[in-house]
UniProtKB/TrEMBL annotation:
Protein name: Class I SAM-dependent methyltransferase
Domain Methyltransferase type: start-end pairs: 52-145
Entry keyword annotation includes Transferase: yes
Keywords carried by this UniProt record: Methyltransferase, Transferase
Amino acid sequence: MPLRPAKVPRDAVHHPVFARFYARMSVAADTKGGIAAHREELLSGLSGRVIEIGAGNGLNFAHYPRAVSEVVAIEPERTLRRLAATAALHADVPVDVVPAAAEALPVKSEAFDAAVVSLVLCTVRDVPRALAEIRRVLRPGGELRFFEHGLAPGGGAMALAQRGLDRTVWPFLFGGCHTARDPLAALERAGFGVGEYRRLRIPEKGPRLPTSFAVLGVARRPFEDGQ
């Protein structure tokens, strides 16, 4: 199915210094911190056409099952997009890496059987708009697989510290990342039916990287969705 022309500039997101840091850090977290196993769990059982939002350097690509017929991988940051394009060459499924932003997906409505967001909603500039776009491009009943970090459950000192970080230099230093967003609440507000999920801390082992609260699970666009 042909893509529509993008409605955003090719470099709507540009964090070249952070992108290089993230590329190194994410590989270490995958290989030594246990993140690769979470990616495997996230993508297990998928089939048909899939859109991945914020593909980064393409670390998910190796974990897509062969039942997936195509992955359209959206990545707005140039440095990460180049790395993702290289990773796509080695994937077991067809992957098309596309320059676009989550808030303006250059694809037709109801074109995908599933969508994937993986450690990306923390950096999206307009989360409600991005989730509305994902809902638009999913077929009714389609799955949204999510693996996101965010606000510590239950509030308390950790949640207070996260909110403080978001109001200071953290987003500036870390590519627009916000530590205090609540991905589950955002999904529910966007009209997705949240199914099974589990909470975890990442990375769980390995390199001395900052740990974060995370949630991994599945949501669906309702069958009766009249969007």
